[in-house]
């Protein structure tokens, strides 16, 4: 199942600081629950994983991420990533491009476009639910990025970009943990489908037949 996601957000931080953060996987991973970087393969390639849980179904992906383009002057980065579910139930490939624009002194807009292809168990949930999950994941991510970058700088990150143990143990993304928003969105989408209303009418007629026969 091929999916395309587009997101944008504004951070009250200089573009250089935002760029330094977003192009360092060791700093980005803790901002996304369930994600971790386990190894730096070469100058542009990293190994890691992420766990995504949709209701009772959890998928744990292990794979690699590679920076295919880093243009600091233009504020553009292109990333290719691929991974396989550790249980052998599918995989995912992603190509992502991001662009940074300084809107005003100390204020940066980040635009991200992702092309994702999901196979296996996660593909069964359909585009609508996967879009909802993506939106919630991105919201969690942007909140963490703002919390990190909009506070006063306290110094450079640890040498080698070492990741803190507590960050590496971040919990997986869970739809159920996002409250009722995704459930409500899914319900609204379902109610827009004619087949849902037809099914509802059939159920009502059957109930009435049993009650009043």
The biggest sheet amounts to: 8 strands, mixed
Give me the Rg, rounded.
21 Å
Helical run tally: 6
Amino- and carboxy-terminal Cα gap: 47 Å
| Strand portion | 35-45%
* Overall mean pLDDT: 74
CATH superfamily of the largest domain: START domain
CATH second-level architecture of the largest domain: 2-Layer Sandwich
CATH class assignment of the largest domain: Alpha Beta
Total number of β-strand segments?
A: 8
Order of helices and strands: EHHEEEEEEHHEHH
The figure for the number of domains is 2
- Which structural category fits the helices and strands? alpha+beta
CATH names the topology of the largest domain as Alpha-D-Glucose-1,6-Bisphosphate, Chain A, domain 4
- Low-pLDDT stretches: 156-184, 190-204, 206-212
Give the overall form. Answer: globular
Helix content: 25-40%
Would you write up a description of this structure?
Helix 3 (126-149) packs antiparallel against helix 5. The chain has 213 residues and is of the alpha+beta class. The protein has 6 helices and 8 strands, in the order E-H-H-E-E-E-E-E-E-H-H-E-H-H. It folds into 2 domains: 2-178, 2-Layer Sandwich (Alpha-D-Glucose-1,6-Bisphosphate, Chain A, domain 4), CATH 3.30.530; 179-213. It is globular, with a radius of gyration of 21 Å. Residues 156-184, 190-204 and 206-212 have low confidence and may be disordered. Helix content is 33%, strand content 38%. The N and C termini lie far apart (47 Å). Strands 1, 2, 3, 4, 5, 6, 7 and 8 form an 8-stranded mixed sheet that branches. The protein has helices spanning 15-22, 25-28, 126-149, 165-168, 181-191, 194-212; strands at 2-11, 35-40, 45-54, 57-71, 76-85, 90-104, 107-120, 173-174.
């Amino acid at each position: 199942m091929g999916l395309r996601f587009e997101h944008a957000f504004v951070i009250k931080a200089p573009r250089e600081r935002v760029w330094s953060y977003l192009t360092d996987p060791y700093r980005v991973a803790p901002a996304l629950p369930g994600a971790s970087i386990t190894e730096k393969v070469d100058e542009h390639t990293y190994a890691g994983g992420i766990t995504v849980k949709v209701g009772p179904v959890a998928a744990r992906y292990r794979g690699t991420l590679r920076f295919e383009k880093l243009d600091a002057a233009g504020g553009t980065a292109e990333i290719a990533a691929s991974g396989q579910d550790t249980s052998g139930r599918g995989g995912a490939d992603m190509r992502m491009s991001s662009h940074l624009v300084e809107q005003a002194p100390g204020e940066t807009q980040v635009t991200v476009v992702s092309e994702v292809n999901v196979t296996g168990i996660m593909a069964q949930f359909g585009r609508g639910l996967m879009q909802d999950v993506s939106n919630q994941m991105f919201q969690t991510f942007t909140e963490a990025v703002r919390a990190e970058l909009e506070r006063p700088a306290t110094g450079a990150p640890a040498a080698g970009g070492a990741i803190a143990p507590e960050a590496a143990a971040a919990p997986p993304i869970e739809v159920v943990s996002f409250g009722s928003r995704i459930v409500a969105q899914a319900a609204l989408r379902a109610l827009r489908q004619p087949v849902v209303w037809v099914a509802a009418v059939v159920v009502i007629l059957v109930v009435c037949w049993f009650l009043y026969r």
